[in-house]
Every structure is written in C-alpha cells, then in structure tokens.
Design a protein that fits this description.
Blueprint (H helix, E strand, L loop, with lengths): L4 E4 L1 H6 L1 H11 L6 H22 L8 E4 H4 L2 H15 L9 H7 L14 H7 L1 H9 L5 H15 L1 E2 L12 H7 L1 E2 L1 H14 L4 E6 L9 E7 L5 E4 L9 H7 L8 E3 L25 E3 L7 E7 L10 E7 L4 E8 L5 E8 L2 E9 L2 E4 L4 E3 L5 E3 L3 E9 L18 E5 L8 E5 L10 E4 L5 E8 L6 E9 L9 E4 L21 E2 L9 E11 L2 E6 L11 E7 L3 E8 L5 E8 L3 E5 L8 E5 L4 E4 L1
Parallel strand pairs: 3-4
Antiparallel strand pairs: 1-2, 5-6, 5-8, 6-7, 8-9, 10-13, 11-12, 11-14, 14-15, 14-16, 16-17, 18-30, 19-20, 19-22, 21-27, 22-26, 23-25, 23-27, 24-26, 28-29, 28-31, 31-32, 32-33
Helix pairs in contact: 2-10, 7-11
Length: 599
C-alpha cells in the first residue's frame, strides 16, 4: 500500500453533487440518444460553472490526502479479495496464472479515488449477463470484453468540462454520473472489467506529439498473452491507436499505470529533482506494444551547468514543451531514450529550478528511424506561410466536392440551370468566390450536395450586379428542415457550419428563395474551417527556435498568405495569431518545395 492514498475534502464533496443531480435527471426519464446527451452535457456545464462561482476552482493541490495504510478498512479489503477470486473462477478468467490474477484482476483501487465498496456491486449488477454468457458457453475474454464494453458505451458520456475534475472518481460518483474525462472513462473500464474477470489495465498517452493534451484508455489481456486496446464510448475494440493515427494524431509514448511499483527513480544526488510526471513510480513504458518505435542515443550539446542527472525528451503541446520520457545522463553528456514514437519533433531538456531548459537542439525522428537535427543556420530567405496548424481530418473540403450550384424559377428545381460545380481542386478551407456569367434572373438557388455528403459548409452568399448581398428565405429538402445546424450557413460566422447526420445522408440540398427574381452576379461560399489558415485582417507574429522562441516580426495579413523575410533557416518556426485562436503548431520550412511542413 506504499504511496497509495485517496484525495478528498469538503469542496470535492460539493462538486460531487453534480453526479447525484445527473442520476436524478436520468431516473426522471431523460431519453436515450442525442437529446439525452445534449441535455446532460449542458446541465453538467452549467452546474460546474455555478459551483465554480460559488465554491471556487476545484484544485487537486488543496485536497486532503488520506494514506491507505492509515485509513483503509479491513472489511473493504476482504470483500475485494473475495469477489476478485469469484471473478477468477469465471470460464473466461480461470486460465489466468496467479501472477496475472494479482496484476490484472485483484487490485483494490484505480488511482487516487475515495474508496467505496465497488467490486461486489458491479459483479451483482452484471450477474444476469454473466449467467447468460456462461449458458452460451462463452470462454473468450476478448468477446466478453467487447460485449460488455458495448453496453457501457450506450450509457457513458465524455465531457470536456470534466477534465477540470482533478482526481479519480469514487464508485458512487462514477456510476451516478456516468460522465467524465477520458481518464474517468478508463477508470470505468478497469472497475467493470476487473469485477467480471476480464484482465484489464489502464494505458496512458501523456502527450500527443503534434497537438495538445494526451489520452487514457484500456487494454485487456487475451488468452494468447497479447494485449488488445479498447475504450468505453468506442464500440470498436482494438481501434484506440488506429483511430488516432487515422485522425492524424502522432503518439510519442504509451505508459501503463500499474498497481505495483514499476520503476524506482530515486535521485542519488541530494537536491536533484525529477519533473513531476516522472515522480510516479507506478508507470511502465509499453510504447513498443502499440507504436513503431526507435531507440535514440543523443549527445547533449549545451553545457550542463547545474550538473543535472536526468535528461527529458519533450514534445511541443501548442504552447510549451512537455516531457514524455526521462533517462540518465552519462559522464560524456550522452543520453539514451528507448522505444520512442516516430514522425515527431523532439527537444532534449533538463529540469532545473523547477523549469525545463534545452539541453540540445530539437530534432525530427523520421518514420524511417533517421534523425534530422534542427540547428539554426544564418541564411537570408523569403518564406511564404498559409497555415498555423495542421489539417485535421474533420476540417475537409471533400464533402463539398461535386456539389452542384443551381438556379431556377421553379420551386422544385425542374430544368434547373447549373451555375457552377465544385471540383476537386478545392484544397483550402477558406472563402471561395465565383462569377456566374449568367444574364438571367432567378428566384431560387441551391447547393445540391453529392450523395452521402456531410455538408461541411460554413457560409453561403449570393451577390447582385451592384455588389449587394442578396437576402431570402432559407430552403432545403424536407429531411434537412429539422437540422439545427441549417441556419449556420447564413449567420456570417465561419466558425459555425452545416453538419448532415448519417440518417440524413440522401439527396440533400440547401438554398435561398429570394421571393422575386434576382440577377446573381457572384456566388461565395466557405467550407467548414478551423480558421487556422492565414486570414485577412488578422495580425500574426512569426517566431524561430534558438534555445528559446525569438521573434521575426509581426505582420497583418491582407490575403490568405503571409510573406516573411527570415535570416534563419533549418530551424523550428511557430506562427501565432495575435487576435484570436489558440491552435498553433511548430513547423519547418522545406526550401526545395518552398512550403511549410507542420509538425
């Protein structure tokens, strides 16, 4: 029980009233599906904001620490052991060795949650399902895990707001609310699966390599001795890593959160400090189970004035460098990092005076395992910039490709005139303008989307011969008329957009009824956008990395591109919008292609 404890306090108990309220809400008949989700998420957000105003911010550092050695109840431990052995006897669990049982089934807590009896309650709540699976002669733990996870995914809700809940949840909070962050999601997975004999672990991506934050998920041990990943809320087992790679997320490291001590970083030198994330002895590197990895041997090129014992491998999280691995520095100022994810920019750093400081130049670990150091070189050149963040898959122009823009004087668009067809040359999510070259007036206009299109259009405008914006009544096919996002295409806000749900994906269209015939000089539209392109009217500052971020100047954009004069090449750059937005990524500049490479 060494280092095991619960975090509690009066303020935490006040915040936990949210979960009791949500339970009452569900018991009073909040319906399933998207309406239920929106209602509960909205209530959670408003309740959290109200508590924040009344009680103050809920901070982990201000909670009371209660060590298990002093406070744990013997009755609690006995019940936990009894029901763990009961789960081990199930037909999909009885193949486990004693060591596997002790590691993946028996642990009595998840993290720092307040302890409440949970194992017997969960086992008994699933007793009918357990009996049914036994009756069907199911013995494969992966199949059982998949079936149970599908049931959990029907009731669980991910909440961005609950990332502010700074500790793991007690059993009652977890099951009353059935809502939380991805870490709470992983806690639910551990609680339920271990209760019914599925050997389960908690895995963690501490930080992504090309965006902010990280992720928590679960894995379960199969009969073949291999782990397969899953997450509550995602009904497809073995798809956690695959989905994130599909979304473009780069993963530098995966750590398993263990119950037993996994490593023992005890600084030998008095006064030596470890970065906070690496003070946790219950963390095991399992990156090579999930990722294509390389081992790195690095020379630290900057003087180690404070004689730091440890070096840290860091990634950029949009604002700051974050540590994802640590290793000992040898007498020759060399360091070795094992099992490091590829296709990512890293920076070796040391941790002194409670601050990270660069220990060498940043470098790219390419997908083939080769390394390119990014040491700045003085050389004057022009660089042309059009983005400050990488393209996310959901910010795509593809749903608009092959959309036909039509005009007609009939409401049913029979014998409509095609004004324009959006082709696959539409590459950037920025406003587009089209001259119609028509001399005929029309009452009705529409964007006719291709089959299965999700829409993804933010704005739709039509302009008269005099340059005046043409107004009219928003029209669509009947299936889209109840779509709450339909109005977004005329709100003059590119941050909102039309989203067509799967059930609505037929021959969809949106348009305007001008009420009388109008001459249309110009059509303009904007695909769904994150506004991370360079945007006219906004001011930007360009930085380069040379042991710290150094400015290359500020410019106000007058188009969708910016041109800077740089005295530095072969280094990392960072473009910041000074007026709005938070998403920004480091990039290199390919001189041969004359373009940004965003990392």
């Amino acid at each position: 029980m060494k280092y095991k404890y619960a975090l509690t306090g009066e303020k935490l108990e006040k915040y936990d009233t949210i979960f009791n309220y949500l339970k009452t809400l569900r018991n009073n008949g909040i319906s399933q599906g998207s309406v239920r989700s929106r209602t509960i998420l909205s209530k959670t957000d408003s309740l959290w904001e109200q508590l924040r105003k009344n009680e103050g911010i809920l901070l982990k550092e201000r909670l009371l620490l209660k060590p298990d050695l002093l406070h744990i109840d013997a009755k609690y431990l006995i019940e936990n052991i009894d029901y763990a052995f009961k789960a081990w006897e199930l037909p999909w669990s009885n193949h486990l060795s004693f060591e596997e049982f002790c590691t993946y089934i028996l642990p009595y807590r998840f993290g720092n949650e307040r302890l409440e009896p949970w194992r017997s309650k969960i086992y008994n709540s699933f007793s009918k399902k357990i009996d049914s699976l036994i009756e069907e002669d199911i013995t494969d733990p992966k199949l059982v895990c998949n079936l149970i996870n599908r049931e959990l995914s029907k009731v669980w809700l991910y909440s961005q707001t609950m990332n502010n809940y700074p500790v793991d949840m007690s059993y009652s909070s977890l099951f009353n609310g059935l809502i939380g962050s991805c870490r709470h999601q992983a806690e639910l997975g551990v609680y339920v699966m271990r209760s019914i004999g599925i050997p389960t672990v908690h895995e963690q991506i501490p930080h992504y390599g090309n965006r902010s934050v990280g992720h928590d998920f679960n894995s379960m041990l199969q009969k073949n001795g291999k782990f397969v990943n899953f997450e509550v809320g995602n009904t497809e087992i073995a798809s956690v890593i695959e989905k994130r790679e599909k979304w473009g997320f780069k993963i530098p490291k995966v750590y398993r959160q263990t119950f037993e001590i996994a490593h023992n970083f005890e600084p030998e030198k008095k006064g030596e400090m470890l970065s906070p994330p690496f003070k946790n002895p219950y963390s095991l590197d399992v990156s090579d189970l999930y990722l294509s990895v390389s081992d790195l041997s690095l020379d630290l090129k900057f003087p180690n004035y404070n004689k730091s014992k440890y070096a840290y491998l860091c990634v950029f999280d949009n604002q700051n460098w974050k540590a994802i691995d640590t290793a000992l520095i040898d007498a020759n100022q060399k360091v070795e990092f094992k099992n490091v994810g590829k296709g990512i920019v890293y920076l070796p750093m040391v941790f002194t005076n409670n601050t990270f400081k660069p220990a060498s130049y940043p470098f790219i670990l390419h997908k083939d395992g080769s390394v390119s150091e990014l040491a700045p070189i003085e050389k004057k050149r022009k660089i042309i910039l059009d983005r400050k963040y990488w393209f996310k898959p959901d910010i795509s122009t593809k749903p608009l490709v092959n959309t036909v823009i039509q005009a007609s004087n009939r409401k049913d668009f029979k014998n409509a005139t095609t004004l324009y067809t959006i082709e696959d040359t539409l590459n950037y999510p920025i406003p587009q303008k089209i001259n119609t070259n028509t001399n005929q007036p029309y009452r009705y206009v529409r964007f006719l989307f291709p089959s299965k299109s999700t829409g993804n259009i933010a704005e739709m405008e039509f302009t008269s011969e005099t340059g005046k914006r043409l107004n009219g009544n928003l029209i669509s096919n009947p299936e889209l008329q109840k779509n709450s996002t339909l109005k977004n295409v005329r709100d003059q806000d590119v941050a909102t957009y039309l989203k067509i749900e799967k059930k609505e994906k037929s021959s969809n269209w949106i348009g305007l009824d001008f009420n009388t015939k109008k001459y249309i000089k110009e059509i303009s539209f904007c695909p769904r956008t994150d506004k991370n392109n360079v945007w006219p009217g906004l001011s930007y500052e360009l930085f380069y990395w040379d042991k710290q971020w150094k400015s290359l100047g500020i410019k106000k954009a007058n188009s969708y591109q910016l041109k800077f004069e740089s005295n530095i090449t072969q280094t990392l750059f960072l473009l910041k919008c000074l007026d709005e937005g938070k998403e920004e990524r480091i990039f290199t500049y390919d001189q041969a292609l004359d373009k940004q490479i965003i990392w």
